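Example record for the data management plan.
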Amino acid sequence: MSEPNAWLLMTVGDNRQHGGNSGYDDQVDVYYTWDSTVPNHANIKEGDRIALWDKERLLGLSVVEEIATETKEKLLYKCPSCAMASIKACKEKSPLYKCYKCGAEFDVPRSQTVSVTEYRSRHDAAWTALDNLLPGGDLRTLCESPRSQLSMRPLRWDDFRTAVAAKGADRAVERVDHRRADFFFPRGHRLEIVRVRRGQRQFREHLLASQGESCAFTCEVPARALEAGHLYSYAQLGVHHEHGGLLLRRDVHRLFDDGWLAVDPTTLRVDVADPLEGYPQYARLHDQRLRADLHDSQVEWLGHHWAEHRAS
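Corresponding structural encoding:
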């Protein structure tokens, strides 16, 4: 069997029951963290395709751009009866923990400090959020082992692509496949240069200074609710063009990236794709003029986006 090159990665934040460790530091749209105590810890590679979920729903997908490793000391918690780390935190009853290996219940687990290799992968350059596009039950069936309980599970990418395309987000998967191809020459040699989003903060500050605290598609909103949306594929070009972006609400940003929202470059009016017609907050944007005053370069980039998503 060939090595897997697509993974379903679990990130649960505070919504976790496993009590064998204190969790991991993840930022879902930027990086993912795990260590050498996790099954499959050494199998994920740069260039692998990933889908992140929170046990309930799909969050988004991307490509692993780089993986950094570091040796650290980690505190593990184990069952005082059988010394296994397979313990579950009980949120609403006492005792506080239960071991699902031997069945023991207890309030204070046994602790142990061990040396581990910590891994942190970056994936922000090609990240596309797809919140709630697929439920957790569907994601489980798309794994190589649907009954697996592992946090890092091999994913059947072709089947996953089909499921995402059926929901109208096929372009998101196409971008990931295109980005993965950047990692390899035809003969399989690894590219030496990996692009990441350097300068993203400065790019956003430039847009705030020039466009103010307003989403180009919707209305005025607090700055913290606005993202710097590129009008082109940053993952492909790897640079921030001065007039290559708009300030967008996070949800609008994702829908624009997927082509569900587009702008006719001849009229500068919004076109709303069919899958959004059932959502009034987006449907009412159709045929509305963009709120932002645009530079010629921005209109040109919007024209390229329109040609990609509305040419047919």
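Summary line stored alongside the record: The chain has a mean pLDDT of 81.
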